[in-house]
């Protein structure tokens, strides 16, 4: 083998430079570890910038009745009680600290009158809870973390004479394979986009923070990087994925013009008074309030409208139902022929606020619609529809340490790539806080893990050679298929057959087609050289997209109920029995194998935070009897 | 709905390249980046171009469209006439890697040289108190998506590789301003530092950066001018500027001091100017031709071998019509200038 490979030695390698990755890297560096950050794009361009609404944390700045217990309850409720309760608990408890910490890094959130961090209302959150900066909170978060890393590098320069002595960002670098020594993580192999040169990181600990899988879908708010790399790397390294059937379709993506189809319209448009209307001009959400939410949501327009100014004495407008409910409602309206010409519904803020208020409260929405679509949202309603936005499923992790389950040791995961925290449906605003809370934990525990090792694991030369030839294969193959065509075909299968509403026959068909695609992807070829060649990069990403899509389709076929981000037309009801089941995917050779595992049981002091009437909609009779016994004891 | 349009896209690498003609389908409502994606999917799978969010939020797809620095995702095809040829070239101020992708590491180096936020001593996390009106000034600059269009368009470094070591550029002036205006930042010498170590004195407020900013940040008016105000009388002097141009760096003192100050090594950050002295020290020379007899990229979009003076060739001194006036000369200005004064 004559290929040149650049070798690097690090204590912790963080794959992904979004919020979770950067927060993990900061923590690993603060623990004194030599840390590498692998960024698929330029530093600071991560998908986190797309998050608009805010970061949920029960600081109680706007409504002092808010606390971590209420936040925990909202998160479990939003996830339909399938969440890993411990993750939801840690998240609710630690989110405020993580937000306050950002201020010491230089973040500038919008303020309340008394100078604290302002908090806004959001779907599924009982109190105003989202720390925000206009509607560009994600950008603020990523920039703050990026600048914190720079400040740590400046410290290292003063101390060691080199900015990169302790923490280095490898931008435009993609990891294609994790390397093991036995069952221990020993390294990561990848390429630099710019030059096509190969890199080998020898490291005992890897933190996956690669985000989601949206690029397997036709209509998505996700960027090209979201190809499920971390999910696939984890699977191939022997870790497991859970809840892969749960995908969040954000209810309000732009549907016009076609070039920006999928791009998000933030939920704050609804939080600030925007309403959804069908082509008959009817505010249709009142028809779609499910029984479990009936007592929390207004049933008349008058009450809903009063809520914006007097939330204590009125119930919330149904436009603020959890995302899955709103997405399904829009889908039904469009299917019933009451959609807009472009296949969405109208989101109207123009008739609800003055132009000045809209421009002040929603500046980047105003800007986005004006520049991208030439639509003035202060004058006309927007056209919106569901877009693939977030995957709730992901790497199965230990809640406290974020260490991946399965055979592998030394692998950690945080942010969207990890699973469990959000159950079957994520509340808006919970992802920014999720990535801070678990990003920190991942960095901390990855660092601690390296200290616990008796000796450094070493990657095997044969594995490195195999990784090199796998990476070069698409370039050397002649007359193979065009990667762009293959991606379009994959997106068609996932969008049409494993989309927002699912049926058994279609899912079976999808699995067959995915097998067919697997054979075709094995024969993909890329023209051109190794230097910044997007065709080659896509050819390598396809393998990841496929295996993750297979997990999603298999789990979607297995779960015979409808819950959160998984809707089966043939099983439209939520089933208490299925609530007890996590679907866990692992890789056996090249094949995905699926296993049922029990959902961890909530501790008694947590479950008794809920009312029996609410739990009765989710739990089995046995579980309810247990609950009754518990609350009996409490009295 | 669709129509076929003419595109000219620069293709090549650091060894040079040329504009290639394409005929490509364009549909209603599309932007330039859509067309590039269609080219990749149908005609040139290896056409290199950066992009991420495709919504004007990440600042990755910066390029020059018909010579104007713009974001590909924010340039609607409806802004061109049907028979217009759309010419796309990479950012000119940064070295080409391949096709439309340039080496923007200059910006990241400058980011590292800009002193970070200094947290106030003795204020615990959670105890930060600031008023909305006070954070808003800095928030304007934190809207920056780091597309580097302002860096690209700034004539101090556009075609002046030799200024790069000393000049941080508009992106980092607004970073300095943001921290200077941060209600709780503990560092008190942001303005002086910007002047002494970031090369802010090179800026002659022509507002080109403000014009190209896709986030509409008022870079010149709201960041650079307020930053210049306090230190201006000490630092802004054309003779100092001239001295800096004609003397070797080791003959100058007081340059590049400060903890994280640029090293000032003449090699240039990107390595492009390796071994090349300042332009003023060399005889005029014709543009370099490559082996194939073609001009390199940096020469094809401009009709002269080097760019005009950093002040612009159409500017006469003293400058009029800018919103900045030297405090000492304030009383001497003629009545017709009064409407544009900063004070």
TrEMBL record, chain A:
<feature type="binding site">
    <location>
        <begin position="431"/>
        <end position="432"/>
    </location>
    <ligand>
        <name>FAD</name>
    </ligand>
</feature>
<dbReference type="InterPro" id="IPR003953">
    <property type="entry name" value="FAD-dep_OxRdtase_2_FAD-bd"/>
</dbReference>
<dbReference type="Pfam" id="PF02910">
    <property type="entry name" value="Succ_DH_flav_C"/>
</dbReference>
<feature type="domain" description="Fumarate reductase/succinate dehydrogenase flavoprotein-like C-terminal">
    <location>
        <begin position="488"/>
        <end position="600"/>
    </location>
</feature>
<feature type="binding site">
    <location>
        <position position="250"/>
    </location>
    <ligand>
        <name>substrate</name>
    </ligand>
</feature>
<dbReference type="InterPro" id="IPR027477">
    <property type="entry name" value="Succ_DH/fumarate_Rdtase_cat_sf"/>
</dbReference>
<feature type="binding site">
    <location>
        <begin position="39"/>
        <end position="54"/>
    </location>
    <ligand>
        <name>FAD</name>
    </ligand>
</feature>
<feature type="binding site">
    <location>
        <position position="266"/>
    </location>
    <ligand>
        <name>substrate</name>
    </ligand>
</feature>
<feature type="binding site">
    <location>
        <position position="426"/>
    </location>
    <ligand>
        <name>substrate</name>
    </ligand>
</feature>
<feature type="binding site">
    <location>
        <position position="389"/>
    </location>
    <ligand>
        <name>substrate</name>
    </ligand>
</feature>
<dbReference type="GO" id="GO:0033765">
    <property type="term" value="F:steroid dehydrogenase activity, acting on the CH-CH group of donors"/>
</dbReference>
<feature type="active site" description="Proton acceptor">
    <location>
        <position position="323"/>
    </location>
</feature>
<dbReference type="InterPro" id="IPR030664">
    <property type="entry name" value="SdhA/FrdA/AprA"/>
</dbReference>
<keyword id="KW-0285">Flavoprotein</keyword>
<feature type="coiled-coil region">
    <location>
        <begin position="500"/>
        <end position="527"/>
    </location>
</feature>
<dbReference type="InterPro" id="IPR036188">
    <property type="entry name" value="FAD/NAD-bd_sf"/>
</dbReference>
<keyword id="KW-0175">Coiled coil</keyword>
<dbReference type="InterPro" id="IPR015939">
    <property type="entry name" value="Fum_Rdtase/Succ_DH_flav-like_C"/>
</dbReference>
<feature type="binding site">
    <location>
        <begin position="16"/>
        <end position="21"/>
    </location>
    <ligand>
        <name>FAD</name>
    </ligand>
</feature>
<keyword id="KW-0560">Oxidoreductase</keyword>
<dbReference type="Pfam" id="PF00890">
    <property type="entry name" value="FAD_binding_2"/>
</dbReference>
<feature type="domain" description="FAD-dependent oxidoreductase 2 FAD-binding">
    <location>
        <begin position="11"/>
        <end position="432"/>
    </location>
</feature>
Automatic annotation (TrEMBL), chain B:
<dbReference type="GO" id="GO:0022904">
    <property type="term" value="P:respiratory electron transport chain"/>
</dbReference>
<dbReference type="InterPro" id="IPR025192">
    <property type="entry name" value="Succ_DH/fum_Rdtase_N"/>
</dbReference>
<protein>
    <recommendedName>
        <fullName>2Fe-2S ferredoxin-type domain-containing protein</fullName>
    </recommendedName>
</protein>
<keyword id="KW-0408">Iron</keyword>
<feature type="domain" description="2Fe-2S ferredoxin-type">
    <location>
        <begin position="5"/>
        <end position="92"/>
    </location>
</feature>
<dbReference type="InterPro" id="IPR017896">
    <property type="entry name" value="4Fe4S_Fe-S-bd"/>
</dbReference>
<dbReference type="GO" id="GO:0046872">
    <property type="term" value="F:metal ion binding"/>
</dbReference>
<keyword id="KW-0560">Oxidoreductase</keyword>
<dbReference type="Pfam" id="PF13183">
    <property type="entry name" value="Fer4_8"/>
</dbReference>
<dbReference type="InterPro" id="IPR001041">
    <property type="entry name" value="2Fe-2S_ferredoxin-type"/>
</dbReference>
<dbReference type="InterPro" id="IPR009051">
    <property type="entry name" value="Helical_ferredxn"/>
</dbReference>
<dbReference type="InterPro" id="IPR006058">
    <property type="entry name" value="2Fe2S_fd_BS"/>
</dbReference>
<comment type="similarity">
    <text>Belongs to the succinate dehydrogenase/fumarate reductase iron-sulfur protein family.</text>
</comment>
<keyword id="KW-0411">Iron-sulfur</keyword>
<dbReference type="InterPro" id="IPR004489">
    <property type="entry name" value="Succ_DH/fum_Rdtase_Fe-S"/>
</dbReference>
<dbReference type="Pfam" id="PF13085">
    <property type="entry name" value="Fer2_3"/>
</dbReference>
<dbReference type="InterPro" id="IPR012675">
    <property type="entry name" value="Beta-grasp_dom_sf"/>
</dbReference>
<dbReference type="InterPro" id="IPR050573">
    <property type="entry name" value="SDH/FRD_Iron-Sulfur"/>
</dbReference>
<dbReference type="GO" id="GO:0016491">
    <property type="term" value="F:oxidoreductase activity"/>
</dbReference>
<dbReference type="GO" id="GO:0009055">
    <property type="term" value="F:electron transfer activity"/>
</dbReference>
<keyword id="KW-0479">Metal-binding</keyword>
<comment type="pathway">
    <text>Carbohydrate metabolism; tricarboxylic acid cycle.</text>
</comment>
């Amino acid at each position: 083998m004559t290929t040149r490979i650049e070798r690097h030695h690090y204590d912790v390698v963080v794959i992904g430079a979004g919020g979770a990755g950067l927060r993990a890297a900061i923590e690993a560096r603060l623990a004194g570890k030599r840390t590498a950050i692998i960024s698929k794009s330029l530093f600071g361009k991560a998908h986190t910038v797309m998050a608009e609404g805010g970061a949920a944390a029960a600081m109680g700045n706007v409504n002092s009745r808010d606390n971590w217990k209420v936040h925990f309850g909202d998160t479990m409720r939003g996830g339909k009680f399938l969440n890993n309760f411990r993750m939801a608990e840690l998240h609710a408890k630690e989110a405020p600290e993580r937000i306050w910490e950002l201020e010491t890094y230089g973040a500038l959130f919008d303020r309340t009158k008394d100078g604290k961090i302002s908090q806004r209302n959001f779907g599924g959150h009982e109190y105003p809870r989202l720390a925000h900066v206009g509607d560009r909170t994600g950008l603020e978060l990523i920039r703050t973390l990026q600048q914190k890393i720079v400040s740590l590098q400046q410290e290292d320069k003063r101390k060691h004479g080199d900015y990169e002595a302790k923490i280095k960002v490898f931008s435009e670098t993609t990891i294609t394979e994790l390397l093991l020594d036995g069952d221990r993580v020993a390294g990561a192999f990848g390429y630099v986009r710019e030059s096509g040169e190969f890199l080998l990181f020898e490291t005992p600990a890897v933190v996956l923070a690669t985000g989601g899988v949206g690029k397997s879908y036709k209509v998505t708010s996700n960027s090209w990087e979201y190809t499920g790399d971390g999910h696939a790397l984890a699977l191939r390294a022997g870790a497991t994925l859970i809840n892969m059937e749960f995908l969040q379709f954000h209810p309000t993506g732009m549907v016009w013009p076609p070039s920006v189809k999928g791009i998000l319209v933030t939920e704050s448009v609804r939080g600030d008074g925007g309403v959804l209307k069908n082509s008959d001009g009817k505010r249709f959400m009142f028809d779609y309030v499910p029984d479990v939410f009936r007592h929390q949501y207004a049933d008349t327009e008058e009450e809903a409208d009063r809520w914006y100014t007097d939330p204590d004495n009125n119930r919330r407008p149904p436009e603020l139902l959890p995302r899955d409910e709103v997405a399904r409602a829009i889908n039904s309206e469009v299917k019933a022929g009451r959609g807009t010409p472009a296949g969405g519904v109208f989101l109207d803020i123009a008739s609800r606020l003055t132009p000045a208020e809209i421009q002040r409260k929603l500046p980047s929405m105003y800007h986005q619609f004006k520049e991208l679509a030439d639509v003035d949202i202060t004058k006309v309603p927007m056209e919106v529809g569901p877009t693939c936005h977030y995957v709730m499923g992901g790497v199965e992790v230990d809640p406290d340490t974020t260490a991946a389950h399965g055979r592998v040791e030394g692998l950690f995961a945080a942010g969207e790539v990890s699973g469990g925290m959000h159950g079957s449906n994520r509340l808006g605003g919970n992802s920014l806080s999720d990535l801070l809370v678990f990003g920190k934990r991942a960095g901390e525990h990855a660092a601690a893990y390296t200290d616990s090792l008796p000796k450094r694991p070493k990657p095997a030369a044969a594995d490195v050679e195999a990784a090199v030839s796998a990476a070069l294969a698409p370039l050397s193959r002649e007359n193979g298929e065009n990667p762009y065509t293959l991606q379009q075909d994959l997106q068609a299968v996932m969008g049409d057959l494993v989309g927002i509403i699912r049926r058994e026959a279609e899912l079976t068909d999808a699995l067959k087609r995915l097998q067919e695609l697997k054979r075709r992807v094995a024969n993909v070829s890329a023209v051109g050289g190794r230097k910044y060649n997007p065709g080659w990069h896509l050819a390598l990403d396809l393998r990841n997209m496929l295996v993750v899509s297979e997990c999603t389709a298999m789990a979607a076929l297995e779960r015979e109920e409808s819950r959160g981000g998984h809707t089966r037309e043939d099983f439209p009801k939520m089933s208490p029995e299925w609530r007890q089941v996590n679907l866990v995917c692992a890789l056996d050779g090249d094949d995905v194998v699926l296993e049922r595992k029990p959902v961890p049981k909530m501790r008694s002091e947590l479950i008794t935070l809920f009312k029996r009437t609410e739990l009765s909609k989710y739990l089995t009779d046995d579980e309810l009897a247990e609950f009754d016994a518990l609350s009996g004891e409490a009295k | 709905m669709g129509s076929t349009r003419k595109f000219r896209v620069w293709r090549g690498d650091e060894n040079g390249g040329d504009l290639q003609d394409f005929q490509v389908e364009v549909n209603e409502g599309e932007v330039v980046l859509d067309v590039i994606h269609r080219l990749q999917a149908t005609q040139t799978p290896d056409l290199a171009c950066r992009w991420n969010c495709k919504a004007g939020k990440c600042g990755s797809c910066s390029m020059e469209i018909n010579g104007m620095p713009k974001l590909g995702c924010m340039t609607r095809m409806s802004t061109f006439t049907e028979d217009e040829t759309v010419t796309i070239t990479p950012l000119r101020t940064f070295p080409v890697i391949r096709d439309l992708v340039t080496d923007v590491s200059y910006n990241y180096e400058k980011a590292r040289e800009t002193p970070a936020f200094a947290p106030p001593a003795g204020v615990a996390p959670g105890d930060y108190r600031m008023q909305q009106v006070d954070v808003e000034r800095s928030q304007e600059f934190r809207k920056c998506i780091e597309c580097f269009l302002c860096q690209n368009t700034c004539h101090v470094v556009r075609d002046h590789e030799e200024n790069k070591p000393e000049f941080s550029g508009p992106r980092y002036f607004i970073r300095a301003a943001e921290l200077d205006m941060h209600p709780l930042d503990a560092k008190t010498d942001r303005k002086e530092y910007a002047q002494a170590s970031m090369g802010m004195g090179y800026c002659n407020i022509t507002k080109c950066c403000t014009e190209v900013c896709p986030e509409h940040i008022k870079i010149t008016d709201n960041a650079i001018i307020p930053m210049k105000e306090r230190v201006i009388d000490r630092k802004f002097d054309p003779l100092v500027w001239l001295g800096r141009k004609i003397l070797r760096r080791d003959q100058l003192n007081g340059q590049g001091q400060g903890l994280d100050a640029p090293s000032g090594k003449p090699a240039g950050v990107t390595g492009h100017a390796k071994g090349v002295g300042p332009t003023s020290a060399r005889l005029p020379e014709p543009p370099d031709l490559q082996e194939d007899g073609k001009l390199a990229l940096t020469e094809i979009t401009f009709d002269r071998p080097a760019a005009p003076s950093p002040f612009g060739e159409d500017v006469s001194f003293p400058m009029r019509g800018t919103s900045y006036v030297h405090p000492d000369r304030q009383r001497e200005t003629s009545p017709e200038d009064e409407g544009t004064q900063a004070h």
